[in-house]
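Researcher: Structure prediction, please.
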Amino acid sequence: MTEACELTATEARRRIGDKSLSPVELLESCIARIEAVNPTVNAVTAKGYERARVEAKAAEDAVMRGDDLGVLHGLPLAVKDLNDTEGLLTTYGSFLFKDNVPDKDDNLVANLRAAGAIVFCKTNTPEFGAGANTTNKVWGATGNPFDPARICGGSSGGSAVALATNMTPIATGSDTGGSLRIPAAICGVVSHRSTPGLVPVEKRAFGYTTFGVQGPMARNVDDAAMMFSTMARFDRSDPMSSPMRQNLFKGVPEVDLSKLKIAVSTDLGFAIVDKRIRATFEDRVSIFKSAFRECIWTEPNLSTVRKTNWVLRALQYLARYKDLYETRGDELGANVKNNYEAGQKLSATDIAWATAEQTNLYREMQRFFEDVDILICPTVAVPPFPVEQLYCDEIDGQKLDDYVEWMSLTWGLTIPGNPVTNLPCGLEPTGTPFGLQICGRHHDDRFILGVAKSLERVFAADPRTARPTPDIASLSA
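Model: Predicted structure follows.
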């Protein structure tokens, strides 16, 4: 029998609305799953059960009174530990903030609460979200739900693991160079990195940037779209935000794949990709390509994206962590310090070049999508490695330049800023989930989610491509 925590978010919300499922019952089921599985995977950090139980009972009472209910009414929500949560420990994965309890929610969390979600726990992240191995000095490492000895990705790793193990129906995540997409891919769940500005972010160091996008994480496309419909909004605190039609992403319809011309690429023309991932991607393309009108092997010209990303990423760290580096730099983790120190070495010429080149890459993507409707590529270039290894430094014998190089398939699309949905597509050869990036034109988020929804149905019909699920019994043991 399916436990309440195993219901999809959309199904749980439907049952709450028709009074066949109590928000109290759902919350308690999620808490029980955390208590059973979290000791093995270490996805959940701070717990706010007491307040959540009060709010779940209030949500139940609202249903019984016949009140108007929000889109997320009664759904438990796991919040990434980079988001401020009122009265609930928020460490940012840094020992510098190990006792930090915010006195208010950040705008994203407040908006999700207003839609009816019940914040009941925080999820693990690397320090300040730097890197794609979810480990830090405060909480330790989060393990992959398919193999806890290996990484779960990052920086939204705790959220991805919590979803994969049914600890929560929805979770928040954020993405600079792949932090929504990488853990979703490695753990077998869905995430959406939207067009920058659709989900406002009030804490960006730079207002005008493609970095630092907040987004939904869920177990399927419908759930992610439902959550996204409450996250996408206009907020004057973010200079990239602009007015939009309300409920634009509510009830995203499927797209007729047989009318689409798609591009597929193993490496986006520049990335170093493990031969096992290459083979897996080529195999999956052979399975799904017939669903489309036309499928061609091609990619945009992203030959300068590696240098552009490194300069602009370092510039972000230079702006954001100056005070911490100068006052408590010896307490910062290696990833944050290395990126900050790379920023110190930048010249005005470097910055001017990278800023201009980002615009050129944006325009290249605009031209690319004049000929194709969608670009599909792998999400992660290498299978998960041991949690003790901070990052991947070599692929197929080729040494990598820095700690972000192995994430190139995701940050390669961050720089031009195109929206991307990560979609699970079976397993890779070492036994962990394999994910695809579904990338499209700027502001075509509804269309991209619709394509992903249609592909999800195609994938579900074939055991080679269906979304994998971890063995909860073994994790509980």
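Model: The CA atoms of residues 309 and 415 lie 6 Å apart.
Researcher: Thanks, that helps.
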